[in-house]
Amino acid sequence: MTEDISGGTVGKALAVLDQVAAFGRPVRFAELLSDSGYPKATLYRLLQTLTDQGMLTCDPVTQAYAPGLRLVRLAHAAWAQASLGPLARAELDALSARTGETIHLAQLDGGQVLYIDKRNARNPVDLFSAAGKVGPAYCTGVGKAMLAQLTGPALEAALDRQSFHRHTASTLTTRADLFRDLETIRHSGLAFDREEHEPGIICLAAPILAPGGQLLGAVSITTTTARSSLAALADLGPALRDTAARIAAAAAPWRFPYRPG
Amino acid sequence: MTEDISGGTVGKALAVLDQVAAFGRPVRFAELLSDSGYPKATLYRLLQTLTDQGMLTCDPVTQAYAPGLRLVRLAHAAWAQASLGPLARAELDALSARTGETIHLAQLDGGQVLYIDKRNARNPVDLFSAAGKVGPAYCTGVGKAMLAQLTGPALEAALDRQSFHRHTASTLTTRADLFRDLETIRHSGLAFDREEHEPGIICLAAPILAPGGQLLGAVSITTTTARSSLAALADLGPALRDTAARIAAAAAPWRFPYRPG
DNA sequence: CCGGCTTGTTCCAATATGTGAAACCCAGTC
DNA sequence: GACTGGGTTTCACATATTGGAACAAGCCGG
């Protein structure tokens, strides 16, 4: 199921790593075997190598594999360097304090939304716990905010990767519908999620754009229809734009080796 | 400089990954070349592969490599599964609320302290730590708390990996000194950091032990000599022990594929 | 403008590595 | 005691990796 064009060994190893991580729980050899498509012996050696390397841990009694601590180490470095996370932290805190709502910071990765950081509606800081999660782009505020900034082949490629699965009654399920919404978003610089991903959950998102116009990521304010409304969210637009601009400013001095797509 | 016994390709690739991550900033090919010991062509292909795989990003203009977003993705899974993080969260929040001081959660990884989570003090001080970061074991509260629980070859191995670099006047710089302190810690179940790592920073740590006595990790309360004292910290001992015990309890039902070392 | 320098990329034959079918082992279980 | 289903090991074979060396592409300083 996990497929890479990679003939290389490391490609396979990393695919296995992804697979184990994707399970979200310790996973036994046999489970991986059926899903991976690799022959028994190959998968076995791959797992062996990865555990030797500390990328995976294997409970000797359960014989279940889980991501290893080395990954946690690398994760930190990745988050600190490859993402907007550290640069945006202060601004997210500020926006969280000002609005009291849930805040998301995301980047575009392979046509999908990769959440980088988050502030919960109530609780203040929690580090990169929620970070690293991936979600769909076509039906989330941050996703649409970012897609709207893409053009030409990059946009095409990203749209091709959308599943357009219907999550709620208001999910945009066709490329045409999405494209129309993206037009609006591009002009307004703000994207609404009108319960398109989860019923009762609405959100307002703004893209984070480098001075040159290059897309860096997106911020969003999320709330519920029970507690707020699209109209009320719209009032937060300026604050949100402001936050996005400040993050962009913080990122400006940095040569950002990041190509969204 | 980065050395692995690994003859395997993935081992080398991961070593390179570590290396890039360790730099903490985008790195150019030549810098890696000198430090890695690999021949030019080899390193080149390794980097190529890793960037292809999304584990690294390479700024096309600067030609500088940095950790890639794929690592951020993996981060989530790793933190959620391989660490005490999710299990301890509630307890850390509680302890943070009760004491108002900086709280650290750490695990032992390769003889070093791997910080898993953190709560900031109400009036935050600047100090060296964040989730996923690694630090020395011999001169930190959490480190010593954990080392004290090791015995026999595991302890030897861990001690062998300590650098015993002097950070402050009170740093324990010999194996013998540390060993003596560990004895005390083992008996009391609490470890003090008496400004051993950073001047003015003190801390009290307790190990997190599974029912069977297996070492899982450690929690600590950190403060400054300006604001508090070792004596005052000692008063928090029971609360800290309690927190550690609760985390251990939360972890008990979970088959923990984690061997400290 | 041209050598000389550093930095990154490509070639290619030798070979160390990885491959995977099949055999094997071990623990439950019918 | 034979059977089944995980998990581990073997081994002849294929191929991916290796790394020296040649090549291309800046970037000076003369």
TrEMBL record, chains A, B:
One GO biological process term: negative regulation of DNA-templated transcription
Alphabetic keyword roster: DNA-binding, Transcription, Transcription regulation
Pfam families linked: HTH_IclR, IclR_C
Gene3D superfamilies cross-referenced by the UniProt entry: 3.30.450.40, Winged helix-like DNA-binding domain superfamily/Winged helix DNA-binding domain
Record PROSITE patterns: HTH_ICLR, ICLR_ED
Domain IclR-ED: 70-253
Domain (HTH iclR-type) ranges: 7-69
Gene Ontology molecular-function annotations: DNA binding; DNA-binding transcription factor activity
InterPro entries per record: GAF-like_dom_sf (IPR029016), HTH_MetabolicPath_Reg (IPR050707), Tscrpt_reg_IclR_C (IPR014757), Tscrpt_reg_IclR_N (IPR005471), WH-like_DNA-bd_sf (IPR036388), WH_DNA-bd_sf (IPR036390)
PANTHER family in the cross-refs: HELIX-TURN-HELIX TRANSCRIPTIONAL REGULATOR, ICLR FAMILY, HTH-TYPE TRANSCRIPTIONAL REPRESSOR ALLR
Protein name as annotated: Transcriptional regulator
Organism expressing this protein natively: Gemmobacter lanyuensis
